[in-house]
């Protein structure tokens, strides 16, 4: 049915601000009902927005007064209805569980038993040794997570995902601590997986502090990233076949794996995220944390002497995800700040301050690491330049102010302008939510927190498509993501955030479907072929999870 009334399909925490968007030409009265039909309250959507991104006129209403736990829907006079939604303190628990279990299901290099992975069970994949590009050398690089709908494993995006998931853990240990790995339903099979490696790292005196399931999952990626480090400390950019395979299960991809050349971005991201991880693992696995520290410092020194202008480019024989990024200054910046925070050496501080003097970098994303650097510098216990600290805070708040203007003017509270519906727009939107959240932390001004939460509501259903962008959540979610195991099984793996609308029409499927012009926020094609609008990735899910964990901790 054609929808006109849009809410977060999963629902709201009682204390959240709650807004409904109604596609309409005039102010529109609405009523909220319990799912049984019982009337609860009424209101009027009276804030008009000419919505260029969606090519429509919207009216926004507020029903924040509704705080009593229950299941509800919203109805207009002419009987247009919203999807049902829940109000509860636990409303996001299962969303978080599914969205994080995705990482387990993306594991490469180990068996995923049926008891744990259901339809997505598979035998160990991509276990053959990898050829180092341009040499005869082979290396063992099994493990880690498949990046996305494809089976490549890419260091930079993996590092970003781990960093965001460590933030999620830090900001909301109770919610993330309640995560139950699918592997726990298959204890024996799980013991065969490389996480048995954890046992080797476990010091006798830390036996009592079992590693939480959340950190166990992140360790799976960190362990793989360590294998991607060359002897001199630099990181191979990625491990993948030469080209993308068809829609087959991972263990059926049998082509040779090639390690692409080293890059500054991969090396800097690795140094940074390992330094960060040291702080999280040292109390559980001190010997492991020491290994992380050594690898991080070694990568950092390698990075310092690397100059590869223009960034990574796919070699001619390789056509998998490029993750090219012409600017490596922000990766160097993040690494310097993170190593300073963890290790405290003056060298790292000098490096960071030198980079910050050229520019205060800002940004969350696979190519933009500035904000991760800023967060580390702002929170270090080691001495800092107070003037620089204030300048960073000012820059972060001013960035959030720019986003806030966009949010306030949009019909769905979206932080993207009309031109910003790009490949992976949902990641940018989630990351904008994080920028807004950071500004709330810095100012304690609630308007930033509410705007951050709006990004979550958009992703979970209050958007011009009326779709929940996380598979298997809400009542009307994406069903045909560009994801090989899902496509092969004919059933979407749950808990995956779709890339979201992309107005570039960058794949053959969207080009075939959208033959007439489509407003940017509606350039989403829920078809398996549409990788530019409907793929999934680990670093899109991590952005979503960091936002979810942050906002729920603040508002619960
Ligand atoms: O940086 C330029 C910017 O200067 C320019 O104005 C803009 C307009 O075209 O383009 C910007 O670069 C874009 C880049 O993303 C950064 O946003 C590229 O054109 C665009 O092609 C690129 O899209 C990336 C896509 O791969 C294609 O390379 C996505 O961000 C990235 O998430 C996606 O990642 C893929 C992997 O390669 C393979 N695995 C799946 C994954 C998700 O689809
Ligand atoms: O499946 C691939 C996806 O993961 C990438 O993001 C995308 C862009 O690099 O490419 C997809 O692979 C397609 C390839 O580029 C062209 N032939 C069709 C492939 C999808 O089945
Ligand atoms: Zn694999």
Strand content: 5-15%
The radius of gyration computed from the alpha-carbon positions, rounded to a whole number of angstroms, is: 23 Å
Q: What is the CA-CA span between the terminal residues?
A: 34 Å
The number of helical elements comes to 19
Helices and strands: which structural class?
A: alpha+beta
Assembly level: single chain
Bound ligand species = ligand G3I, ligand 9MR, zinc ion
Query: Poorly predicted ranges (pLDDT <50, ≥5 residues)?
Result: none
Based on Cα principal axes, name the global outline: globular
Residue-averaged pLDDT, rounded? 96
Overall strand count:
14
Query: What helical percentage do the residues reach?
Result: 40-55%
Instruction: Tell me about the largest β-sheet.
Output: 5 strands, mixed
Query: Major sheet: order of its strands?
Result: 2-9-8-4-5
SSE layout and pairing:
Elements (H helix, E strand, L loop, with lengths): L4 E2 L4 E2 L6 E5 L4 E7 L4 E7 L1 E5 L4 E7 L7 E7 L8 E3 L5 H13 L8 H4 L12 E3 L5 E2 L13 E2 H17 L1 H5 L9 H6 L4 H5 L11 H15 L10 E3 L17 E2 L4 H18 L4 H20 L23 H15 L2 H13 L11 H10 L6 H24 L15 H19 L2 H14 L24 H6 L18 H6 L17 H4 L3 H18 L1
Parallel strand pairs: 2-9, 10-14
Antiparallel strand pairs: 1-3, 3-7, 4-5, 4-8, 6-7, 8-9, 10-11, 12-13, 13-14
Helix pairs in contact: 1-19, 3-7, 3-8, 3-19, 7-8, 8-9, 8-10, 9-10, 10-11, 10-12, 12-13, 13-14, 13-15, 14-15, 14-19, 15-19
The protein binds ligand G3I, ligand 9MR and zinc ion.
The site of zinc ion has 7 residues, from loops.
